[in-house]
Design brief:
This protein starts with 7 loop residues before the first helix and ends with a helix. It has about 110 residues and is mostly helical. The model has no long low-confidence stretch (mean pLDDT about 85). About 80% of the residues lie in helices and about 0% in strands. The protein is elongated and about 55 Å long.
């Protein structure tokens, strides 16, 4: 029987606990050995989601070649912020699924 999904309050409390620098360093150390595989999964998910397709390349070109320096800087900053946001969302989804997978493996043992 699958576990119930966490409530918003439980999720918020868990995210708050993650703000502890020591806890975050420990989490980083745990995933360091699989960082390359996780990055490959993240890149694959972003690519399959269309993020690195022709539309993205067009936006990169548009940002890099904007004639006005202020406009160019704004466009590059916006593009970087969007890429970061998408990377975080997909990264969290990958991490979440990894946690579920690990939990299922523990239950089977």
């Amino acid at each position: 029987m699958p576990e119930r999904p966490p409530t918003d309050a439980e999720l918020e409390a868990a995210v708050e606990r993650l703000s502890d620098p020591e806890r975050f360093r420990a989490a980083e150390a745990r995933v360091a050995s699989v960082a390359a595989q996780l990055q490959r999964i993240l890149n694959q998910a972003l690519h399959e989601g269309g993020w690195f397709g022709e539309a993205h390349e067009a936006e990169v070109l548009k940002a890099a070649t904007a004639p006005d320096q202020d406009e160019r800087l704004r466009a590059v900053r916006t593009l970087l912020a969007e890429e970061t946001r998408m990377g975080m969302l997909v990264g969290v989804a990958v991490g979440w699924e990894l946690a579920i997978e690990l939990g299922q493996n523990r239950q089977e043992d």
